[in-house]
Inverse folding.
């Protein structure tokens, strides 16, 4: 399974995944993925179970905008040590602080719940989202800075993606089975406790020495409290990015920002959709935990292989096409109680496409960063691919409610999923242009 995501012979053996640094990355990837759906799609399932309207669910999903705005505070993460936990190191200190706050926020969501205080629950969800975004900033920086070369970066990215997908399985599938038997509040408390896994990995991790030297040098030469330091922390990452990539950086940012738009837009309505077509949480959880898991692992492997064999840009084009087709396929389920075989096929296609596109996009964005500005530049890129989707997805419930007045609920869902899939086409076109430009530049050289 390790070959597809890697690029050097010394990293292509399966044993490479059992190196201490790789195992830590796998666990940190799990910690990074754990809160994501608990304030996203799974959060929507809980709200729908409690009888909350689709429009309200769509607006509640807006707490996820924190993931798109993390570039705003990433410069502080790059330049300032974390309070209380700063002695652990620049990256590990922020990791530990974020993980503890995430756990507390999940407990807060569990103790309030939509029936006690919907507003209070959304407030705790916002705390979890902000802390989770902060954790992502630091873990992504640690992953990039800890890699000794581009080949090891591929290994760590692959390991992080595996860990992330395992966490998504737990919060997208297994939690439904737990919630069916013990309730949503118990489930969220359980997953709050699971943040201990990430905390242990944080204490076992080692600080990236090269990055620490650069950051300490910046702190000495241009302290954050000076005008020069503020300029370097806030403007420096952007100047460095455009200096390296030139005007083509605008095309890169546009392509990245549109790439995962279909997945984000349809996300808040997926679990309410399962509820409305009559599927039980147990059934959905079982399919996601079996067919979905296998398809996800296959997608990660295939994405890594295509990126290695054909190049990242071509792999991104393939991933974009797969996303569009898989999301449009949800329209096939838009009738009461679809057959198990059809549901399994659609789930497999969605899991494969999402994993394929995800691992290639993360590897591509990681390759564009510069040492010294890692957290801020990657946060900028990661925010670019989420900001449009995070904003548009808040209207997903409103769109379906508007369509259902003339078409009925099932047809409204079907039209919505087809439209959500098709909005991925502009990103495919942009990456085709980038690939063509790269080919011309390569031939000229």
């Amino acid at each position: 399974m390790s070959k597809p995501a890697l690029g050097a012979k010394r990293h292509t053996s399966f044993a490479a995944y059992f190196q201490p640094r790789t195992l830590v990355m796998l666990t940190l990837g799990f910690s990074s993925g754990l809160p994501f759906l608990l304030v996203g799609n799974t959060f929507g399932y809980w709200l729908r179970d409690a009888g909350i309207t689709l429009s309200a669910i769509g607006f509640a999903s807006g707490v996820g905008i924190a993931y798109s705005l993390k570039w705003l505070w990433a410069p502080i993460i790059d330049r300032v040590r974390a309070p209380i936990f700063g002695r652990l190191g620049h990256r590990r200190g922020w990791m530990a602080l974020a993980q503890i706050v995430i756990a507390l926020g999940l407990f807060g969501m569990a103790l309030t719940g939509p029936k006690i205080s919907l507003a209070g629950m959304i407030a705790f969800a916002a705390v979890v989202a902000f802390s989770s975004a902060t954790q992502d900033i630091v873990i992504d920086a640690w992953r990039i800075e800890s890699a000794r070369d581009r080949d090891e970066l591929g290994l760590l990215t692959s390991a992080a993606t595996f860990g992330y997908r395992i966490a998504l399985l737990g919060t997208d599938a297994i939690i439904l089975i737990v919630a069916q038997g013990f309730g949503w509040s118990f489930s969220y408390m359980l997953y709050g406790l699971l943040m201990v896994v990430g905390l242990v990995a944080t204490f076992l991790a080692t600080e990236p020495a090269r990055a620490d030297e650069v950051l300490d040098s910046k702190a000495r030469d241009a302290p954050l409290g000076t005008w020069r330091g503020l300029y370097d922390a806030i403007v420096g990452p952007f100047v460095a990015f455009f200096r390296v990539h030139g005007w083509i950086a605008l095309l890169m940012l546009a392509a990245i920002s549109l790439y995962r738009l279909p997945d984000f837009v349809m996300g808040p309505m997926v679990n309410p959709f399962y509820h409305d077509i009559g599927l039980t949480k147990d059934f959905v959880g079982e399919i996601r935990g079996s067919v979905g898991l296998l398809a996800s692992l296959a997608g990660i492997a295939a994405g890594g292989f295509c990126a290695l064999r054909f190049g990242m840009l071509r792999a991104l084009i393939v991933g974009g096409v797969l996303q569009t087709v898989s999301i449009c396929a949800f329209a096939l389920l838009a009738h009461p109680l679809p057959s198990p075989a059809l549901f399994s096929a659609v789930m497999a296609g969605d899991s494969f496409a999402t994993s394929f596109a995800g691992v290639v996009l993360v590897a591509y964005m990681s390759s564009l960063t510069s040492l010294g500005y890692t957290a801020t530049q990657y946060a900028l890129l990661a925010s670019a691919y989420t900001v449009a989707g995070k904003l548009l997805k808040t209207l997903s419930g409103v769109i379906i409610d508007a369509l259902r007045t003339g078409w009925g609920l099932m047809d409204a869902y079907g039209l919505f999923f087809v439209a959500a899939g098709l909005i991925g086409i502009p990103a495919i076109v942009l990456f085709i242009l980038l690939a063509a430009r790269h080919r011309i530049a390569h031939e000229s050289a």
